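Student: Please help interpret what follows.
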Amino acid sequence: MSAEGTPDPGAPGRARHGGTAPPRRRTPPRTAREAARGPPVWTAAGIVALGGTGAGHLYFKLNGDIDSVDIDQALGTDRPEKADDGSEDILVLGSDTRSGGNGELGGGTDDGTARSDTAVIVHVHEGHRRAAVDSVPRDTVVDRPECTDTEGATHPAATGVTFNSASSTGGAACAVKTVESLTDLRMDHYLEVDFSGSQELVDELGGVQVTTTEDIEDPESHLELKAGTHRLSGAQALGLVRTRHGVGDGSDLGRIQLQQAFLKALLRQVGEVGVLTGPEKRYDLADTATRTVTTDSGLGSVNSLMSFAGGLKDISPARTQTVTMPVRYDPADANRVLLDKDEARLVLDALRNDEPIPAAAAEGTAAGQAGDVVSTS
């Protein structure tokens, strides 16, 4: 689990204690709902970049159908201080809601809840020319703080729960509160996208090109790819970032590594939109973006979202550092992970000080063993 752009400090999957990779974890049978959890968050990151493609003001202003939530009001003033160095931190969530068309894509039933089954902290460095993407594993055991949701309901604190329970308990506001409690970083903005939005945007882009270094076959995510270069459709892309069987150690950490590789491919594809497509295509992309994203109220207008996204146009895949929050497998439950506090401190200190994440932040932590399966070169 090494930060991209820095030397790999050790073999993927090396346990923190003992120096050898853990055996492939035995995963109990899962329901269709569990098998479908995933990754639309990577499309949300791509949506952020659309403002710099040439779609810009003309097309974003044509569609104001943006859902937003007032997180600042729900959380009040008991929060970390805002950074004063020009950097920004954005919490981006992939929702597993089964409402609307998402039930067909994700499986399972609509029970009225949505969990943050994929979550990343996007740190935009001062000057908005570089970014760091820090994935937070959904099964990380955390102490969830008391929080108030955007409807005004208060939810009590809970200890020893999984990170992804925060959003199902109290929605976006509780997810943000939990991340801020875990990291002591102020989240300046919030973005969320679901299954159907993820698939639709990739299809509008004309697919996303990746290269796989080995065959991937996962019946549960309906994905079958031979080793080689592929232009993934929306359905295939959704399958790739959901898959966990047949690659790596079968854990969610391996899936995160696939998602990080796909994110860079997606950003590269989005960056080509302004050069390679005409006005009608760019309008379709902008229309899809504004219909499928949920934001905090600070980004809840066409103009504010356009301005924010346009400010990120200089951040290319080569200037995007990816890392997973350092964790180790929970000895009491192989399907849970615990924060590796020493290495996590290196990551969080780097973000707090607006510095690159050091390679030492990956030393000895659980990885997932899928870091080399997908290449975007």
About this structure: The chain has 13 helices and 18 strands.
